[in-house]
TrEMBL record:
Keyword Transferase part of the UniProt annotation: yes
Name of the protein: Lipid kinase
Keywords: Kinase, Transferase
GO BP terms: phospholipid biosynthetic process
Gene that produces this protein: yegS_1
Organism of origin: Escherichia coli
């Protein structure tokens, strides 16, 4: 999906700037990491992040989401979950995570709905952890979004703290950020998004959902 055309944003720079000034502004939430880096859609961590980053573009173009499974199987020798501790409002979990998704939006790179309950204007972050207890079933479930999978841990909070004894990498809307300590918080209405008047907030939410 190419976002500007879908939002009705003109390709011509002068017309796009006019829309930014006089367009219909809708407030959506934004997430901030360690009081510095921001993202709008999704933060992903764990082995799944490494797989989606390292999977060759030609393989993704040819096979789509299946390419991640194939590349993951090829990397079995380095398939290690990340041990970490995650805290939030009324949430605490500690263990081995194969995939971590913290979403303001629902869909991660590759088309997976990693956080299917996320909304971009509810003041909350949705958390989904795929534990590393059973590596292959968990890797497959990241693509199938199996709601009955016992290795899926879920939570919702306006903030999450992640601590790890070793360096882990999060992908923030495509930008990598590495470290051992992460504080991720939601900034309600942090972005005023200028769109054409014909696009409603309901339609906008759907753009981040499918």
């Amino acid at each position: 999906m190419i976002l500007p055309p879908v939002l009705g944003i003109p390709e011509a720079l002068d017309k796009a700037l006019k829309l930014a000034i006089a367009g219909n502004a809708i407030a959506i939430d934004m997430a901030q990491v360690n009081k510095q880096t921001c993202f709008i859609n999704m933060a992903t961590g764990g082995f799944g992040t490494r797989i989606t980053t390292e999977t060759p573009e030609k393989l993704k173009a040819a096979l789509g989401g299946v390419s991640y499974i194939i590349h993951g199987l090829m990397r079995m020798d380095t398939l290690q979950p990340d041990r970490c501790e995650i805290r939030g409002e009324n949430f605490h979990w500690q263990g081995d995570a194969l995939v971590i998704g913290i979403g303001n939006g629902r869909q991660a790179g590759g088309g997976q709905q990693l956080c299917p309950n996320a909304l971009i204007n509810d003041g909350l972050l949705q958390l989904r952890i795929f534990t590393g207890d059973e590596i292959i079933p968990t890797l497959v479930s990241t693509l199938k979004s199996d709601e009955d999978n016992p290795n899926i841990i879920e939570g919702a909070s306006s903030w999450f703290d992640i601590q790890a004894p070793h360096e882990i990498t999060f992908n923030l809307d495509g930008e990598p950020l590495s470290g051992q300590n992460f504080h991720i918080e939601i900034l309600p209405g942090g972005v005023a998004l200028s769109i054409t008047t014909r696009l409603s907030i309901v339609a906008l939410i759907k753009l981040f959902s499918v």
